[in-house]
Design a protein that fits this description.
The protein has a seven-stranded mixed β-sheet, covered by helices on one side. It folds into two domains: 102 residues, Rossmann fold (3-Layer(aba) Sandwich); 102 residues, Formyl transferase, N-terminal domain (Rossmann fold, 3-Layer(aba) Sandwich). Strand 1, helix 1 and strand 2 form a beta-alpha-beta unit. Helices cover 35% and strands 24% of the residues. The chain has six helices and nine strands; from the N terminus they run βαβαβαβαβαββαββ. With 209 residues, it is α/β, with parallel strands linked by helices. It is globular, with a radius of gyration of 17 Å.
Amino acid sequence: MVRTAVLVSGGGTNLQTLIDSKLFGDLKNCELTAVISSNPQAYALVRAEAAGIPCFTVDRSIFPNDASYNEAVLRKLRDMDIELVVLAGYTQPIYRTLPKAFPNRIIAVHPSLLPAFPDADPDGEKLCEQVLRRGAKITGATAYFVTEEPCQGPIILQKAVEVLDDDTVQSLQARITQNAEWLVLPQAIGLYCDGKLRFEGGIVKQKRD
C-alpha cells in the first residue's frame, strides 16, 4: 500500500472522488493516510473525518511566506512517512522544496488539456472563460506530476470534453469537473500505486502487462 497524503484547501469535491474510489475498490494499493489542509475551515476536512482519514491543518495564515509554509508541510509529510502526495483543490503555491523532496511523487489535476491554458485559475472558472472566448472546440482535464514549474510536469492522463455551442462558463466548468477531473485524478493515482507507470525520455507511459 502506498502511503498517500492529500493536500486540500476548500470544499473537497476532488477528495471525495478519491474517498469514493477507495470505497469501491478502485484504489486497491493506495492508503489514504492523511488529509492536510491549508485552511482550518475547509469542508474537505469534514469529508475526511467522515471517511475516517486522519486530518491535519497547516494554517497558511500563520506563516510569513510561501517558503516557510511549504517547509512546515514538508515536515508533516516526512513525519508520516508519506510516499505519494496528491493535490486536490489545493490553492497554495508549490514551493520548490516539495517537488525536490517528492520527485515524480506529487500528482495534481488541471482543468485543461495541458499544455493548453496552463496559467488559468485552477478552480476552472477563468479557464472556462478563456476557452469560450477563444472558441475552442475541445477542452478537458489533465492529471500530471508536479514539478518546480507550474503545470509543466509530465502528463499522466488526459480526458477530453467537447465544448458545446450553448455552453456557459458554469455548464462547461461543471462538465469538465464531473466528466474529466473526477475521472483522471483517481485513475492516475491508481496507476501510480499499482506500479503501472514508467518514464521514457521524460514522458510518462503505462507499463504493459
